[in-house]
């Protein structure tokens, strides 16, 4: 962003996560609304932001559908995407919502475990609540305020989620599950070694779930996994964690 001319100001409050960055950006906007244009990178926030972001991201679903029909001649059985605020997932899902045969699965981060503050599995473990101007599932502390959250992925540690995902969950149209840091890192290494594609740590959560269910499925089952980003940005973090003994580099496989 700086290379392209943006001035980047780090969020210094609270846990210094995405939630605090959104808090501070909203506060800056409110202070100077006449001269500020607020941009939001996920399918969260007050209307019409979730709708706008879904529409912009829906190109992912349209392209995926076109490509899978060309490659396989039929719709996939599963579409799997990681869920932080929910933009890559809703972009993918939106094109398949009307195709009842396609199972839509969102994967949230269970981080270090399911105890308070160790995860950000909002749809799996949260309850209805309002934050950042929208009503959705939310992880709360004992006072009803946004909970502390954690994930190995900076893009997934958010204590709420795009409202359309809450709706899909309540309708039963999409299923939401979770994957841990360890499962995501295993998937990160697996795809890097087997395909030469380094996935973002966020996307690795979706991959981890695909790898979890694939062995139980029929051989001709088609699973589309949304690789929402590249893992180049995560290589230094992985290297650091390996050097600190938090994760082991796997043996190179052919
Ligand atoms: C590569 C990547 N994937 C996924 C996400 C999660 O966001 P969302 O759930 O809005 O797609 C992020 C967030 O920063 C990200 O960087």
Question: How would you sum up this structure, described in words?
Answer:
- Helix 2 (49-72) packs across helix 3 and helix 6 (181-195) crosses helix 7 (201-213).
- The longest helix has 24 residues, at 49-72.
- This protein has a single domain (18-243), classed as 3-Layer(aba) Sandwich (Rossmann fold), CATH 3.40.50.1100.
- It has eight helices and six strands.
- It has helices at 18-31, 49-72, 87-94, 122-125, 163-171, 181-195, 201-213, 235-243; strands at residues 78-82, 103-111, 127-131, 134-138, 174-180, 223-225.
- Bound molecules: pyridoxal-5'-phosphate.
- Pyridoxal-5'-phosphate is lined by residues 42-43, 82-89, 155-156, 200, 202-203, 228-229.
How do you describe this structure in short?
The chain has about 250 residues and is of the alpha/beta class.
